[in-house]
Design goal:
Shape: globular
Number of strands: 11
Largest sheet: 7 strands, mixed
Strand content: over 45%
Oligomer: single chain
Number of helices: 0
Distance between the termini: 37 Å
């Protein structure tokens, strides 16, 4: 199993980023997927989830709702996190997670929101 995140970087407040997570080593379409994040000195927190059924079955944390959009492309074995109107408090390492037991984490991608 492998989950490889990309798309992080430095962005100004109010800006946007699109994170990608490409999966391999398992049947991607059979698993829900999640994004988590971990800010320095804080516990890892859940950001968004998407059911294996697809883009109409999603859920978000309060901090992500209305600004972030999770989506998936089963043909590409990929899950995405579109992040708009980014705030400094969104600064964190963002992780992709496979919901299908046993769960599996990617290595993370750094997002820094700063002027």
């Amino acid at each position: 199993v492998q989950l490889v995140e990309s798309g992080g970087g430095l962005v100004q407040p109010g800006g946007s980023l699109r994170l990608s997570c490409v999966a391999s080593g398992f049947t991607f379409s059979s698993s829900g997927m999640r994004w988590y994040r971990q800010a320095p000195g804080k516990e890892r927190e859940w950001v968004a989830s998407i059911h294996m059924r697809g883009n109409n079955f999603t859920s978000y944390s309060d901090s992500a709702l209305g600004r972030f959009t999770i989506s998936r492309d089963n043909a590409k074995n990929a899950v995405y996190l579109q992040m708009n109107n980014l705030k400094p408090e969104d600064t964190a390492v963002y992780y992709c997670y496979r919901s299908l037991a046993p769960g599996y984490w990617g290595q993370g991608t750094q997002v820094t929101v700063s002027s």
